[in-house]
């Protein structure tokens, strides 16, 4: 059985991706940091549909923990699926904080860097010995990296996500020798827990964002999760090094 590791799989896009990948008959290892109840929900939902999932804690902002995490993954692979290989890795952990130029601090910059760029880089490095030849890696980027997605206050966030777009392309080149495909998905405005559940707390924000989207609504986690699931499967076997916008036509 194939197994996927979904980083940041306890809520939002990661939760939807975990469920969608499981429907493609993958076993799933998903991670959580501060939302264990969400991870439990995903594991239970996958089990209810006849699949198998295991949740592990991980703070993507703490790269020193990655070797130990890789050993945990190795142990779970052997115990749960009797394998030593990962067939898909989804780097989806996120953090969102707004700061205008005059408000940016070292702490703000470093926090976003640790989670959004440094984390995916060094976590992929740590897990690479477990990644099977011919596997797929998907990174979650952002439409904020595009000219049409520029919003004041998101300069550091977008810069880190832009770095991840470039990293995706380079990893696709480096890992092609092993047949490993590396792509990214670039969500537009999506209803997630980022920003402190902003859309839940401030529903008046939804209509203006929907008005900027060609398809007339904001995104739902499953809109992006289904694309991630497609990219990890053999149906996307001839796609690599791409950043695929999944935004419903943001600012068209």
From TrEMBL:
The keyword Oxidoreductase applies. Residues 2-188 form the Ketoreductase domain. It comes from the Bacteria. CDD domains: SDR_c. Keywords: Oxidoreductase. GO terms for molecular function: oxidoreductase activity. The keyword Oxidoreductase applies. Gene3D superfamilies: NAD(P)-binding Rossmann-like Domain. Belongs to the short-chain dehydrogenases/reductases (SDR) family. This is SDR family oxidoreductase. It comes from Gryllotalpicola protaetiae.
């Amino acid at each position: 059985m194939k197994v996927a590791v979904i980083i940041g799989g306890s809520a939002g896009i990661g939760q939807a991706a975990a469920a969608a990948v499981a429907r493609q008959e993958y076993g799933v290892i998903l991670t959580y940091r501060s939302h264990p109840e969400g991870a439990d929900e995903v594991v239970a939902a996958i089990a209810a549909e006849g699949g198998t999932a295991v949740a592990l804690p991980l703070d993507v902002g703490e790269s020193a923990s990655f070797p130990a995490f890789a050993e945990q993954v190795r142990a779970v692979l052997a115990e749960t699926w009797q394998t030593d290989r990962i067939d898909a890795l989804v780097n989806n952990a996120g953090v969102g904080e707004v700061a205008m130029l005059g408000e940016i601090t070292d702490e703000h910059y470093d926090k976003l860097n640790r989670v959004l760029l440094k984390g995916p880089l060094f976590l992929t490095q740590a897990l690479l010995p477990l990644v099977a030849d011919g596997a797929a890696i998907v990174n979650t980027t952002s439409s904020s990296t595009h000219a049409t997605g520029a919003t004041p206050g998101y300069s550091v966030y977008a810069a880190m996500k832009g770095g991840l777009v470039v990293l995706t392309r380079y990893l696709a080149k480096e890992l092609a020798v092993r047949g490993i495909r590396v792509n990214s998905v670039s969500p537009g405005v999506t209803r997630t827990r980022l920003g402190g559940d902003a859309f839940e707390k401030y529903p008046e924000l939804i209509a203006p964002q929907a008005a900027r989207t060609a398809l007339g609504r904001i995104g739902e986690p499953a809109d992006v999760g289904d694309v991630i699931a497609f990219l990890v499967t053999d149906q996307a076997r001839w796609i690599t090094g791409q950043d695929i916008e999944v935004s419903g036509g943001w600012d068209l």
